[in-house]
Amino acid sequence: MNLKNDSPNQDFRSLKVLSAIFIAALLTRLFWIVVLTPNYQLDGGGDGPLYMLLAKTLVEKGWQYLDTYMGTVATAPVYTLYLAFFHFFFPPESVLTAARAGQAIIDALSTIAIFDLTQRIFNRRTAWIAAIVYALDPRFVVQSGEIYTEALFTSLFLISIWLFVIAHPLPDPRQRSILKYLIAAASWLIAAFTRAIVLPLAALFGLMTLLPRPSKRQLIALGIAAVVGVTVLVVRSIQLYNTFGRYVIITSGFEGHFWMGSRGDGQWHGIPEFEKERQDLQRRYGGRDAYIEDALNTIAADPPAYARLLFVKMTSAYLQPQGTVSFGNEGESLKDLALQVLNKKMSLNDLIQSSGFFPKLIIYIFHYIGLIGGLIGIILMRRDWLKVLPLTLPIAYFTLFYTLLTIIPRYLLPIMPLYMIFAAYTVEKLYTHLRRAYSV
């Protein structure tokens, strides 16, 4: 952690405060998991049951038996390995709770990465704000207790950005080392083997090492990382081809999601509906899964309609915060309940008294303050675009790629801490401005 500019006493105080933030983050997440949701059940519509099945199969029968499941093509291996650890060391009845507690610990540790990442790009005060907010933000508290890849991926994603910023300090190129770059590259590769969507972004971060002017050590580090990364990806692709007869990079699914994202409302509606539409697709294309071809035909038939669909998908995903359905008996978001009030299907008093209203409201407050404050922060830092590029590039990348595929609030959750960091900077700038304006 970068505390070298402080005195020893300030260092010690900072470490104590940061430790307190970490403990607060951990306790809130464990309280959610152990006390509030001890009877957590896997969501049949998510990818949690598949990953749990793969992890259990891996422990009980070995890796070679995973070949019997086509899920090994549709899933990246890191989360399977993570869950397999708990299947191996814990009794069956404790696996879910142990895996969720493990995610809580990893996510709480992310507060340290967020603190140091933020102070390296902005300043110490902004870093304190960002770390405290992340520790208490109910969206991430709830996420840590869910069995799906974002729970682990978000932490790996944030740590990868943090390690890159450590390896690539803009003010002083002399602090850059080949080892630091390679550690950051390894972290990005692990993140990509958790969610394959991040692989092109990892390549973009590799190219970012060449900015503003590449040195010899940067070129060497980039070359080594590229050779090792490509080798790992080729080995993975060969393994999948030998097993399933398909060329796949890390995991499949891009074509299917692009196809689903181009038609209807552009969203996933569960396996039964997908299989029904897939059978119709195969009937129309002579038994082929012509995802890309059919999607391009749909887009070409009415480009303005496709543009409207992309806009609706993106705005819908951004306007709905992740995590609200975890509260209340209705299982609906606050937005849906508010629409019922507007349509006179529910009174305002009933809305306020509905189960889980206030937790949902708090999530909405965190979400919209983060988004609006984050956008303001991005505008404020527009002249220092290269400095904040490690934060703005992932935001733009995730928004674009998931809009073109299928986009839901859960898919955007990994970039919400980046908006939150910019929002913390906005708050810090506002505080500084008000203090100067009203100082005597």
Explain the overall architecture:
By secondary structure, the chain is mainly alpha-helical. The chain has a domain at 308-440. It has 21 helices and no strands.
What's the arrangement of secondary structure elements?
Blueprint: H1 8-36, H2 48-61, H3 71-74, H4 77-89, H5 95-121, H6 124-136, H7 138-143, H8 149-167, H9 178-192, H10 199-208, H11 216-244, H12 254-260, H13 271-284, H14 291-301, H15 303-319, H16 334-342, H17 348-353, H18 357-380, H19 385-404, H20 409-412, H21 416-438
Helix pairs in contact: 1-5, 1-6, 2-4, 4-5, 5-6, 5-8, 6-21, 8-9, 9-11, 12-14, 15-19, 18-21
Q: Counting H and I runs of at least 4 residues, what is the number of helices?
A: 21
Structural class: mainly alpha
| Series of H and E elements | HHHHHHHHHHHHHHHHHHHHH
What is the residue-mean pLDDT, rounded to a whole number?
Answer: 88
List how many beta strands DSSP finds.
0
How far apart the termini lie comes to 36 Å
| Global Rg | 23 Å
Largest sheet: none
Helix content estimate: over 70%
Low-confidence stretches: none
Specify the overall morphology.
globular
Please give a handful of descriptors for the protein shown.
440 residues, mainly alpha
